Amino acid sequence: MSSSSKSAYFQPRTLKEASxxxxxxxxxxxxxxxxTDLVPALxxxxxxxxxxxxxxxxxxxxxxxxxxxxxxxxxxxxxxxELAESPLINKYFPALxxxxxxxxxxxxxxxxxxxxxxxxxxxxxxxxxPLLAYGAKAIIRGQAGEKQVRIEHFxxxxxxxxxxxxxxxxxxxLTYQEESFSDYEKLGIRKAMEIAIASACVSIGLRDGIxxxxxxxxxxxxxxxxxxxxxxxxxxxGKTITPDLIRKAARVAMQETRxxxxxxxxxxxxxxxxxxxVERLVLHASSTRAESSLKG
Length: 296
Ligand SMILES: Cc1cc2nc3c(=O)[nH]c(=O)nc-3n(C[C@H](O)[C@H](O)[C@H](O)COP(=O)(O)OP(=O)(O)OC[C@H]3O[C@@H](n4cnc5c(N)ncnc54)[C@H](O)[C@@H]3O)c2cc1C
Hints:
This protein is α+β, with helices and mostly antiparallel strands. Helix content is 35%, strand content 25%.
């Protein structure tokens, strides 16, 4: 089945074998995880002579587990359903659980993986803003060994990323902070089976419910890649949170976006919605924290 002029399906057992196959078929090889992005794309392109390399048998890409102090490893083959249901992810990275629970439909969530969602590099990928907000690192395995790359350096444009020939996403490492609050919001026309028109994730550490020790604000579907609103973060970080400060940060987040107009929404609408999502998430975080510090 390995003739270069024919289609073929491979099921490697090790990452080395999968990487070697990518090198051996540089133009025709395609990795497949759940296939929910790849298979429709291949049929749209009437693809011929594709060498499909399945990642299903690669144990190194599976599992969610504690990974050293305050760190959790998520294998690239973890499905959205697994992320939505994992007690560890729900406890430490609730915005990632929520984002995964909002992907497509139950059947898409049962097949689609976090590795595929990130490697597909859509600006609207639901798991990207939480990974950015949690400061995740992507673990990449290639011919030269393994490296870790901060997730903000992974995306280079719509459907484009830094993976070089022979490189495969093995998983992600996320660091948690006990006292932080995080949430994800996705704006779509429908409640299910909807790609985000705009999305936002905030992870924030508050002292006494009002003083912002650290914050990350990440946005989806409003720029060529998922982004962090770094200037907006600087407005809030190291300050006592007030409604005025939150509104200012939300306006600055809006200015950091570069959305497009398309069939689902205009660029102008997307910008306005970013301000509203960020304001709502930070207000919610500060009111939730203020309540719990009053109780505790
Ligand atoms: C009906 C429908 C609804 C959808 N709804 C949503 C939604 O609401 N939100 C959303 O974000 N997405 C949505 N998607 C897109 C898709 O389901 C997700 O992006 C999913 O997470 C892709 O994962 P997968 O495992 O199926 O990827 P695949 O289709 O298997 O792969 C996607 C791409 O990533 C590459 N790849 C996969 N794994 C790796 C790896 N470990 N290393 C390197 N490259 C890799 C593949 O080569 C391919 O280019 C939807 C898709 C459909 C068909």
